[in-house]
Amino acid sequence: MPLQLPPSSWCDSDLRDFRDMARTFCQKELTPHQERWASEKQVDRELWNKAGEVGLLCLSIPEAYGGGGGTFAHEAVLYEEQAYAGDGAWGVSVHNGIVAHYLLEYASEEKKQEWLPKFASGEMVGAVAMTEPGTGSDLQGIKTRAVRDGDEYVINGAKTFITNGAQCGLVVVAVKTDPDAGAAGVSLIAVETDTPGFRRGRVLDKVGLKGQDTAELFFDDVRVPVVNLLGDAEGQGFIQLMQQLPQERLIIAVTAVAGMAAALEQTLEYTKDRTAFGRPIFGFQNTKFKLAEVATEVAVTRAFVDQCIERHLKGELDVQGAAMAKLWATERVNRVMDECLQLFGGYGYMTEYPIARGWADVRISRIFGGTSEIMKEIISRTL
C-alpha cells in the first residue's frame, strides 16, 4: 500500500505467512463474486466449506475442537484481508470471532465437541440472534421467551437483522428465561436450525453489505434440550454478552481500519491516473491536502487499534477500551470513505467502483455492535 506505516507490533513472521494465505484466498474466492452475491443477497454456501478446507474457520479455537489453535491476531489478519479484498458479504467474523467463542466459553463439553468441529469445517454456519423488531441496543427489553418444560426449553419469539441468518445451521439466541428479572432474566440458548418450529423470514434488503445474508428469524414453540443452555445456570446471558462484546467491537474496529486503508489506496491510484484541466487530479492542492488528512486518519486510528489488539491478546482489553476503539474507528472510516468518494466525482457514486460499495457498507458500522451513542454512554460511565 502507498502509505508506508511501520508493521503492527503484534504481527510476527508466522502471521505474515498466514496473511499471504488469507490474501490469496480472499482475492480468489471473494473479490470476483461481489456483484453476483449482492444480487443474490448471500454468498455461495460452498464458500464456507472451501474456507474450512484451507483452515480459515475457527482460527482462534483450540485444535482439540477442530480449530486452528491460533489467537485473535490470526482473526484480525483474516478480517483485514477480507476488507482489502473489497468484501462485505462473507459473515466470517460473526462465525469465527463471535459465535464460536460463545460456544467455546459457555457450552457444555459435550456440545463443544459436537458443534465446534462442524464450525471449523464449514459444515455448520453460526449466527447470534439478539436484536428484535422492537428492541435494539436495550437487550434487557427483549421479548423472546424460553420456558422450561422438563428436559427441554420451549422458545417463542422473533429476531431481526441477523447476520448469516439465511445460511446458519446453529444460532445463539438471547431469550428471557425470567421476564420479571430484567438483565438477570436473560439467557443464551443455542438452537440448531433444523429444529421443528424454527423458520427463516426475509433476507433483508439493506443500504450496504448487499451480499451479506441478513435475515429475520422466527421461533414458534421451538423445543431444544436443556443442555443447549449456554452457561451452568439460567440468567447468565447478559453477563456473557458483556464479556464477549469487547471482542466483537474490536473486530468492527479492525475491519474499519482496513477499510480506511483500502479506500486511501484506491483513491490515490484513481487521482494519480485521472486527469482534469490537463493534469492529474492529485496535482490539485485540495486533492493532496484531503488525502494528507485521510492518510493521517488511517495512521492514527491504526496505531490505537493496534494498541487495543495488543491489550486483547494479553487479556487486558476492557469494556471502555473496546468501546473507544469501535467509536473512533467507525466514525473515522465513515468520514474517510466520504472524503475519498468525493474525489472520484460522479464515478464514486457508481456501484461498479469499490469505493461506492465501501461507502455504503461502512455506514452500518456506527450502528451494529452497539451504536456510537451507546459507545459514548459506556465510555462516560468510567470518567
Protein architecture, described:
The protein is of the alpha+beta class. It has 3 domains: about 15-120, Acyl-CoA dehydrogenase/oxidase, N-terminal domain (Butyryl-Coa Dehydrogenase, subunit A, domain 1), CATH 1.10.540.10; about 125-235, Butyryl-CoA Dehydrogenase, subunit A, domain 2, CATH 2.40.110; about 240-380, Butyryl-CoA Dehydrogenase, subunit A, domain 3 (Up-down Bundle). The protein has 11 helices and 9 strands. The strands form 3 sheets. A 4-stranded antiparallel β-sheet has the order 2-3-7-6, with no helix packed on it. Strands 1-4-5 form a 3-stranded mixed β-sheet, with helices on one face. Helix 5 (about 90-105) runs antiparallel to helix 7 (about 235-275). It is globular, with a radius of gyration of 21 Å. The protein starts with 12 loop residues before the first helix and ends with a helix.
